[in-house]
Amino acid sequence: MVCQDPAVAWTRPCAVLGGQATVASRERQTVDKPKVVLGVSGGVAAYKACELLRRLTESGHDVRVVPTEAALHFVGSATWAALSGNPVATEVWSDVHEVPHVRIGQQADLVVVAPATADILAKAAHGLADDLLTNTLLTARCPVLFAPAMHTEMWEHPATQENVATLRRRGALVVEPAVGRLTGADTGKGRFPDPAEIFALARRVLARGIREPALAGRHVVISAGGTREPLDPVRFLGNRSSGKQGYALARTAAARGARVTLVSANPQLPDPAGVDVVPVGTAKELREAVVKAATDADAVVMAAAVADFRPASYATGKIKKKDGQEPEPVALVRNPDILAEIAAARPRPGQLVVGFAAETDDVLVNGRAKLARKGCDLLVVNEVGEAKTFGAEENEAVVLGADGSETPVPNGPKEALADTVWDLVAARLVS
Fold it and tell me: Which residues bind CTP (predicted)?
C-alpha cells in the first residue's frame, strides 16, 4: 500500500508492505534532497519535460510534478508519478485537510514551469489561482523559473510580452524560448529549449537560492569560442578554444535573470537555455556582432579567443602541393582589437567591459599590462597551454580590476569562475 497523500509526499511517506521503505527511512533518504516543483502546462512540448524530470531525479532532487489538466492530454499522470516517485494531482480538492495548494509551494526550494504556455504565463502574471499549479505559484517563496514554449505569434504578442515583463519585474526568471521547428511545419522563436540546458539552468538557480536575480533587467553580451580565419576553402587559422567558459558565463548570467546575447564563434556546444545565440566565424564577423549587440548592453564580457591575425589574401581554390617546391609564405595582417574598441567606445553610460587574457608566462605581469592597454574594467587572466584551460571542464584564474583589485579563483568548475565574474560585475554596475 503506497501513500496517495499529495500534500505530504515529501515529508510523511506511508510505510509499505514487504520490507519496503518506512516513514523514518524514507525521511532519512530525502531530508537533504532539494525539493523541486516541476509545473507542466498544456503544450505539445510537455513530453520533453519527461527528460527534464529524469535529469532532476537522477541528480538527487526530490521532484513533485504538478501538471495542469491540459498537460494531461499530452502526458498522463501515471508517467509523471512513475518518473518522479511522487503522487500527482492537478486540482486543489484532493486531501483538502492537508491544504496542498499552500503546502507544495511553501516547501519548495525551486519551482520550474516547463513548458510554460502563454496561458500559464498570463495566469501567473495576473495572480489567478484556478488549479493546483497556479495556487503553488502564488504560495512559493523560492526562485521560480519559467521555460516558455509556444508559437512565434503567441510569444511575440504584446499581451504575452507584457506578462513576461511583469513576471520578470517581480523576480521570476522567464527564459527566452529557442528558435527552431515548432508544431506542424512552422519554424521560429518559441521552441522549447533543450531539456539538458533547462536542467543546467535550474541547477544554477538552485545553487544560488536567491529569489531576486542579481542581474534582473540587465542586458549582457558575451563572446565565446575561437575565431577561424580562412586561408582557402578547406583551411583556416584557428585556436584551441572550446567556448566552454563563455557558455558557462552565459548560463550563469541567465540564471541571474539577465537578458543574454551570446556571440558564439565555432563551438560544438548546445545553445544555453534562455540565451540569444548569434553564430559567427571570423574575427571581423565577431566584431560586427558584438558592436551591434553592445549598443544597449549593461556589460560586455569578451571571453572568446579572437585571432590576432588573418591571412592577407584568401585563395579561392585549394592551395595545392607542388612536387619539389616549398609552399609560399603566408602573409598575415592584424585583426581589429575588439576589446579595446568596445572599452573605448562605451556606447551605453556606465557600461562594464570585461576581457580575458590567456597567457603562457609572466601571467600577472602581462595581465596588468594588458588591462591598462585595453582600458577594460576587469580582466580575467589565466595560464593556458595544450593541456591547460582550453577544452577542459575546469579553470583557474585571477580577475584583475582597473581599481587595482586582484580576485584569485582557485581551480574548479568553469561555472565557479563565471559566478565570480558576475559577482564582480554586479557590484560595479550603476543602478
Answer: 308, 318, 336-339, 356, 370, 374
In one-letter notation, the amino acid at residue 253 is A
The string of DSSP codes covering 182-214 is: -STT-EEEEEPPPHHHHHHHHHHHHHH--SS-T
Q: Say how far apart CA 114 and CA 7 lie, in whole Å.
A: 21
Range of weakest confidence among 74-78, 211-215, 243-247, 254-258: 211-215
Residues acting as catalytic residues:
239
Please write the tens of the pLDDT for every residue from 277-330. 999 999 999 999 999 999 999 999 999 999 999 999 999 999 898 888 888 899
The CATH number of 219-308+330-428, from 1.10.3720.10, 3.40.50.10300, 3.40.50.360, 3.20.20.70, is 3.40.50.10300
Query: What is the residue extent of each domain of the chain?
Result: 32-208, 219-308+330-428
- Read off the DSSP letter of residue 106: H
- Among 175, 178, 280, 169, smallest CA distance to 222 is for 280
Backbone angles phi, psi at 41, to 5 degrees: -105, 175
32-208 under CATH 3.40.50.1950, yes or no:
yes
- Say if 32-208 and 219-308+330-428 have the same CATH topology: yes
Query: Residues annotated in the binding site for CTP, as ranges?
Result: 308, 318, 336-339, 356, 370, 374
Biggest distance spanned by C-alpha atoms of the chain: 90
Q: How far apart are CA 62 and CA 84, in angstroms?
A: 8
Cβ atoms of 42 and 73 closer than 8 Å: yes
Is the predicted pLDDT of residue 37 greater than 50, yes or no?
yes
Tell me the C-alpha distance between 135 and 158, whole Å. Answer: 25
